[in-house]
Write a structure and sequence with these properties.
alpha+beta
Length: 403
């Protein structure tokens, strides 16, 4: 029997039992679809994470008060001060873009007609290059603003939309925060959300000493931000910051009362979580494929039993054991490939749907699609071989007598 004749006979046999064929290949469908959908979802999520990290700054280093415990909480909190930032600015100058002090507080910003609760951030001019902010109109904070403790501010796009919805360029307008009246000197271009979901544009930047002395009455910093000149210097810069602060605070290694971390470390944690999820999905998909393969073997064994007399007739008119083997192997292969094709279609459709609703880029790994399809075919051949071999070894005389 030729290969095409075997395919035609196998297809005819599967069409006769359509419902059984569909149910048999369901495990293959689920396993293949799960692999493609979840690998695509993980790729899209990672692309979105990379996009947000670019907005935040992959070279960004954060210095915060308190030692980081094994559980991730902060302990032994000793405030970060302006002096710490001044020392880092002086000693790290060749390694970093700048050093920006950050003291943040949630306050209500109001105009004559509008108000909103937003993050008010006291900082220095270095914030612009450290975070890569781009000014859309006006200017950013300057050293002169800090010297004069100027009552000026720079606002993000979200704040502009909330309190100046009808004013595309509110430079020169007044904003009141508590009792303090500030003049808008700049509007920033939008950055979007951070990797943890916070709106980076929902902020108002004011001179650090203006915030400390005219608004909150406290000089302890929330954190210090800096960014390495080059990605390959990130670890070296982090180590140097740790060394400088250890010497200033007179603490030994392992006893730090401060925490130095990088945005890159947060990204690596997210990548580890994504890989763990992919492995978990791979295990689940493998189980689905195994169940699907066992289902194919079971149905093919039933089919051999049901068609024993037919096998005897074929052998009586000249079919060889090899012809019978190929015929039943083709049926198992077509069952698994049909399931694989349906699984691929379902998986790609699910990936596109998830990308649409989650708002991340579509990322379909076509090498994984091809591999999943080939694996589904391999499952059919592996689990279909024994029933096909059993059919090919039937005695023609006994098969003809079978009722």
């Amino acid at each position: 029997m030729g290969i095409f004749a075997a395919l035609r006979v196998a297809l005819t046999a599967l069409v006769v039992h359509k419902g059984r064929s569909v149910l048999t290949s369901l495990g293959i469908v689920i396993g293949t679809a799960a692999v493609i959908a979840m690998v695509s979802a993980a790729g899209g999520a990672r692309a979105k994470l990379d996009e947000r990290l670019d907005n935040v700054g992959k070279n960004l280093i954060l210095v915060r008060a308190g030692a980081r415990t094994q559980s991730g909480a902060l302990a032994d909190v000793k405030p970060i001060t302006n002096e710490d930032a001044t020392l880092l600015r002086k000693q790290l100058k060749p390694l970093v873009h700048g050093v920006a002090e950050v003291q943040a507080t949630m306050r209500t910003a109001a105009t004559r007609t509008r108000n909103c609760i937003t993050m008010v951030v006291g900082t220095s001019p270095d914030m612009k290059q450290v975070r890569g902010w781009v000014v859309q109109s006006g200017r950013f904070l300057a050293a002169e603003d800090l010297k004069k403790q100027a009552t000026v501010c720079v606002i993000g796009q979200t704040v502009r939309e909330k309190i100046f919805p009808d004013t595309p360029d509110p430079v020169g307008q007044l904003v009141r925060i508590d009792h303090l009246q500030l003049r808008v000197i700049g509007v920033l271009t939008p950055k979007g959300r951070s990797p943890i979901g916070g709106d980076q544009d929902d902020q108002i930047f004011v001179p650090l000493n203006t915030l400390q002395r005219k608004l909150v009455g406290e000089e302890n910093l929330t954190m210090i931000l800096t960014s390495a000149e080059h990605m390959d210097q990130l670890d070296k810069t982090k180590e140097e910051i740790t060394r400088v602060l250890r010497e200033k605070r007179r603490v030994k290694a392992g006893q730090e009362d401060f925490d130095v971390s990088t945005v890159q470390e947060m990204a690596e944690l997210a990548v580890i979580m994504t890989r763990t999820m992919q492995i978990l999905i791979g295990v689940i998909a493998s189980i689905s494929l195994l169940v699907g393969g066992i289902g194919i073997m079971n149905i093919m064994l039933v089919s051999v039993t049901e068609r024993t007399r037919e096998i005897g007739i074929r052998m009586a008119i000249g079919a060889t054991p090899a012809d019978v083997l190929i015929q039943f192997l083709m049926e198992a292969l077509m069952l698994s490939l049909a399931g694989g094709l349906l699984g691929v279609t379902l998986g790609i459709g699910s990936a596109l749907s998830m990308a649409h609703f989650a708002g991340w880029p579509v990322h379909i790994d076509y090498s994984m699609v091809a591999m999943s399809f080939l694996i589904s075919g391999g499952v059919g051949v592996f689990f279909g071989y024994y029933p096909a071999y059993k059919a090919s070894r039937l005695d023609p005389i006994e098969a003809l007598r079978y009722e």
